[in-house]
Amino acid sequence: KSHSRNYDAIVETIRLDHIQAAKETVKSAEIIAEYTRDVDAECDSLVKILESAQHLTEVTRRTEDLIISKGEKLSCRFMTALLQDRGVDAAFVDLSDVIHFNLSKGLDESFYRKLAIALAEEVYACGDKVPVITGYFGNVPGGLLNEIGRGYTDLCAALVAVGIKASELQVWKEVDGIFTADPRKVPTARLLPAVTPSEAAELTFYGSEVIHPFTMEQVIRERIPI
């Protein structure tokens, strides 16, 4: 709405929630101070994005992606601060600007190959530090959420695995693995000890939400076990 500022209170709630979480879990005052500055900057940026959408009276796909990406940026900054506080030399890696190559042909295989290389470079740039990476990887033609969907974070992990030629990809979910059916809908669903790539692809085709089909495709091509 053109004259509403209701989003200010929402952003402030998000800001305070993240800062409070750090105060409850992080011991180092120095790390908390730096983390608070980072959270403030992300929230200020979010307000500017919302103001821009308000002035334009339009929420484009690009704007929607940017708004949604703030949640995981804040989560990654929190995880980085938490790891650093526990003595792990971690680095926050923001992938918003990772796409610097030509996108003339859209999201074809060439795009994913170039993206995997670009993501690997970001990981290698961390040196010996543990990278904490945003699943959001920037401005994709047609919009990241629209073109790929909410599984884009898994896809990002798969492309990093391909780019660094990882020995395996681990995807941690709210379920114990791949079941014969959705355990929330089918009480007798059984956990499968292992599945072949073709079986996994078939399960995904029939509605399994455990792993995004694009994710499967990328790592299977490189023979990386998930």
UniProtKB/TrEMBL annotation:
Q: Which Gene3D superfamilies match?
A: Acetylglutamate kinase-like
**Positions of the Aspartate/glutamate/uridylate kinase domain:** 54-226
Family label: Belongs to the aspartokinase family.
Protein name stated in the entry: Aspartate/glutamate/uridylate kinase domain-containing protein
From which source organism is this entry?
A: Cryomyces antarcticus
What is the phylogenetic placement of the source species in the record?
A: Eukaryota, Fungi, Dikarya, Ascomycota, Pezizomycotina
